[in-house]
Amino acid sequence: MHTTSRISQSDTYDKRTIILHWLSALLVMVLWIAGQTIDFFPTGTPRITVRSLHISFGVLLTVTLFARILWRRSGGSKLPPADAGALGKLAIGVHYLLYALMLAVVVIGIAAVWIRGDNLFNLFTVPAFDPANKALRHNVVELHGLLANILLGLAAFHAAAALWHSLVKKDGVLRRMLPT
Protein backbone atom coordinates (compact mmCIF):
# COMPACT_ATOMS: atom_id res chain seq x y z
CA MET A 1 0.00 0.00 0.00
CA HIS A 2 1.30 3.45 -0.80
CA THR A 3 0.50 6.77 0.68
CA THR A 4 -0.03 10.01 -1.12
CA SER A 5 0.00 13.39 0.46
CA ARG A 6 -1.19 16.66 -0.93
CA ILE A 7 1.53 18.81 -2.36
CA SER A 8 1.88 22.14 -0.63
CA GLN A 9 2.24 25.41 -2.50
CA SER A 10 5.88 25.64 -1.35
CA ASP A 11 6.67 22.32 -3.06
CA THR A 12 7.03 23.80 -6.53
CA TYR A 13 9.89 23.76 -8.95
CA ASP A 14 11.97 26.88 -9.45
CA LYS A 15 11.27 29.16 -12.40
CA ARG A 16 14.27 28.02 -14.48
CA THR A 17 13.34 24.34 -14.08
CA ILE A 18 9.77 25.12 -15.14
CA ILE A 19 10.88 27.12 -18.19
CA LEU A 20 13.34 24.44 -19.30
CA HIS A 21 10.70 21.73 -18.82
CA TRP A 22 8.03 23.47 -20.91
CA LEU A 23 10.55 24.59 -23.54
CA SER A 24 11.67 20.97 -23.90
CA ALA A 25 8.07 19.79 -24.22
CA LEU A 26 7.27 22.45 -26.84
CA LEU A 27 10.41 21.69 -28.85
CA VAL A 28 9.75 17.94 -28.80
CA MET A 29 6.22 18.51 -30.13
CA VAL A 30 7.28 21.02 -32.80
CA LEU A 31 10.18 18.81 -33.91
CA TRP A 32 7.96 15.75 -34.11
CA ILE A 33 5.33 17.58 -36.19
CA ALA A 34 8.01 19.01 -38.49
CA GLY A 35 9.62 15.58 -38.84
CA GLN A 36 6.28 14.03 -39.76
CA THR A 37 5.46 16.68 -42.37
CA ILE A 38 8.79 17.47 -44.07
CA ASP A 39 8.01 15.21 -47.02
CA PHE A 40 4.65 16.93 -47.60
CA PHE A 41 6.48 20.06 -48.75
CA PRO A 42 7.53 20.41 -52.37
CA THR A 43 11.17 19.67 -53.14
CA GLY A 44 13.42 22.68 -53.35
CA THR A 45 13.27 25.72 -51.11
CA PRO A 46 10.06 24.84 -49.18
CA ARG A 47 11.37 21.42 -48.11
CA ILE A 48 14.87 22.77 -47.46
CA THR A 49 13.37 25.48 -45.23
CA VAL A 50 11.29 23.03 -43.18
CA ARG A 51 14.20 20.59 -42.85
CA SER A 52 16.51 23.48 -41.89
CA LEU A 53 14.01 24.62 -39.24
CA HIS A 54 13.80 21.03 -37.97
CA ILE A 55 17.58 20.88 -37.67
CA SER A 56 17.76 24.33 -36.06
CA PHE A 57 15.11 23.46 -33.49
CA GLY A 58 16.91 20.15 -32.90
CA VAL A 59 20.05 22.12 -32.05
CA LEU A 60 17.94 24.28 -29.72
CA LEU A 61 16.57 21.12 -28.06
CA THR A 62 20.15 19.88 -27.62
CA VAL A 63 21.16 23.13 -25.92
CA THR A 64 17.99 23.08 -23.79
CA LEU A 65 18.58 19.46 -22.78
CA PHE A 66 22.15 20.15 -21.69
CA ALA A 67 20.99 23.27 -19.83
CA ARG A 68 18.36 21.14 -18.06
CA ILE A 69 20.87 18.50 -17.06
CA LEU A 70 23.41 21.04 -15.83
CA TRP A 71 20.76 23.02 -13.95
CA ARG A 72 19.27 19.89 -12.40
CA ARG A 73 22.70 18.75 -11.21
CA SER A 74 23.82 22.16 -9.92
CA GLY A 75 20.96 24.31 -8.73
CA GLY A 76 17.53 23.18 -9.80
CA SER A 77 14.80 22.22 -7.37
CA LYS A 78 14.74 18.56 -6.44
CA LEU A 79 11.35 17.54 -5.15
CA PRO A 80 10.44 14.12 -3.83
CA PRO A 81 8.18 11.85 -5.89
CA ALA A 82 4.48 12.46 -5.31
CA ASP A 83 3.87 8.78 -4.67
CA ALA A 84 5.82 6.50 -2.38
CA GLY A 85 6.66 2.98 -3.45
CA ALA A 86 6.35 1.53 -6.93
CA LEU A 87 4.55 4.50 -8.52
CA GLY A 88 7.22 6.88 -7.29
CA LYS A 89 9.94 4.63 -8.66
CA LEU A 90 8.06 4.39 -11.97
CA ALA A 91 7.85 8.19 -12.16
CA ILE A 92 11.59 8.51 -11.55
CA GLY A 93 12.29 5.86 -14.18
CA VAL A 94 10.05 7.59 -16.72
CA HIS A 95 11.89 10.88 -16.14
CA TYR A 96 15.29 9.24 -16.68
CA LEU A 97 13.97 7.51 -19.79
CA LEU A 98 12.63 10.81 -21.14
CA TYR A 99 16.06 12.39 -20.71
CA ALA A 100 17.78 9.37 -22.30
CA LEU A 101 15.40 9.35 -25.26
CA MET A 102 15.78 13.10 -25.84
CA LEU A 103 19.55 12.67 -25.80
CA ALA A 104 19.42 9.67 -28.14
CA VAL A 105 17.08 11.41 -30.59
CA VAL A 106 19.26 14.53 -30.82
CA VAL A 107 22.51 12.56 -31.12
CA ILE A 108 21.06 10.34 -33.85
CA GLY A 109 19.54 13.41 -35.52
CA ILE A 110 22.97 15.04 -35.65
CA ALA A 111 24.39 11.78 -37.03
CA ALA A 112 21.63 11.71 -39.68
CA VAL A 113 22.52 15.21 -40.85
CA TRP A 114 26.18 14.30 -41.00
CA ILE A 115 25.62 10.93 -42.73
CA ARG A 116 23.00 12.20 -45.17
CA GLY A 117 24.47 15.63 -45.73
CA ASP A 118 22.17 18.58 -45.79
CA ASN A 119 21.52 22.05 -47.05
CA LEU A 120 20.68 24.57 -44.32
CA PHE A 121 18.49 27.42 -45.52
CA ASN A 122 20.35 27.39 -48.87
CA LEU A 123 23.17 29.13 -47.00
CA PHE A 124 25.34 26.32 -45.70
CA THR A 125 25.95 22.77 -46.86
CA VAL A 126 26.82 19.89 -44.59
CA PRO A 127 28.70 17.43 -46.80
CA ALA A 128 27.54 13.82 -46.73
CA PHE A 129 29.78 11.44 -44.80
CA ASP A 130 29.30 8.55 -47.24
CA PRO A 131 27.03 9.64 -50.10
CA ALA A 132 26.95 6.19 -51.73
CA ASN A 133 25.85 4.37 -48.56
CA LYS A 134 22.07 4.69 -48.93
CA ALA A 135 21.40 1.83 -46.49
CA LEU A 136 23.27 3.60 -43.69
CA ARG A 137 21.44 6.86 -44.40
CA HIS A 138 18.09 5.07 -44.45
CA ASN A 139 18.76 3.15 -41.23
CA VAL A 140 19.92 6.19 -39.27
CA VAL A 141 16.98 8.31 -40.42
CA GLU A 142 14.57 5.47 -39.58
CA LEU A 143 16.12 5.02 -36.12
CA HIS A 144 15.85 8.76 -35.50
CA GLY A 145 12.16 8.65 -36.43
CA LEU A 146 11.46 5.52 -34.37
CA LEU A 147 13.08 6.95 -31.24
CA ALA A 148 11.27 10.27 -31.78
CA ASN A 149 7.96 8.37 -31.92
CA ILE A 150 8.81 6.49 -28.73
CA LEU A 151 9.81 9.77 -27.07
CA LEU A 152 6.52 11.39 -28.05
CA GLY A 153 4.58 8.37 -26.76
CA LEU A 154 6.42 8.42 -23.44
CA ALA A 155 5.91 12.19 -23.18
CA ALA A 156 2.18 11.64 -23.78
CA PHE A 157 2.17 9.03 -20.98
CA HIS A 158 4.00 11.54 -18.74
CA ALA A 159 1.40 14.23 -19.55
CA ALA A 160 -1.46 11.78 -18.95
CA ALA A 161 0.01 10.89 -15.54
CA ALA A 162 0.23 14.60 -14.66
CA LEU A 163 -3.41 15.07 -15.68
CA TRP A 164 -4.41 11.99 -13.66
CA HIS A 165 -2.71 13.52 -10.62
CA SER A 166 -4.51 16.79 -11.23
CA LEU A 167 -7.99 15.62 -12.20
CA VAL A 168 -8.37 12.31 -10.35
CA LYS A 169 -6.06 12.41 -7.36
CA LYS A 170 -6.27 16.19 -6.99
CA ASP A 171 -2.96 16.14 -5.15
CA GLY A 172 -1.31 19.23 -6.64
CA VAL A 173 1.46 17.41 -8.51
CA LEU A 174 0.78 19.24 -11.77
CA ARG A 175 0.91 22.61 -9.98
CA ARG A 176 4.56 21.88 -9.10
CA MET A 177 5.51 22.41 -12.75
CA LEU A 178 3.13 25.22 -13.68
CA PRO A 179 4.40 28.80 -13.96
CA THR A 180 3.22 31.02 -11.11
Task: Please describe what this structure looks like.
The chain has 4 helices and 2 strands. With 180 residues, the chain is mainly alpha-helical. Strands 1-2 form a two-stranded antiparallel ribbon. β1 and β2 form a beta hairpin. α2 packs across α3 and α3 packs antiparallel against α4. The longest helix has 36 residues. The radius of gyration is 19 Å and the shape is elongated. The relative contact order is 0.17.
**What is the element string, with H for helices and E for strands?**
HHHEEH
Estimate the mean pLDDT confidence.
92
By oligomeric state, this entry counts as single chain
Q: What does the overall shape look like?
A: elongated
Q: State the separation between the terminal residues, measured CA to CA.
A: 33 Å
Strand order of the largest sheet: 1-2
The gyration radius over C-alpha positions equals 19 Å
How many β-strand stretches? 2
Low-confidence stretches: none
How does the helix and strand content classify structurally? Answer: mainly alpha
Helix content: 55-70%
As a percent range, the share of strand residues is: under 5%
Number of helical segments? 4
Largest sheet: 2 strands, antiparallel
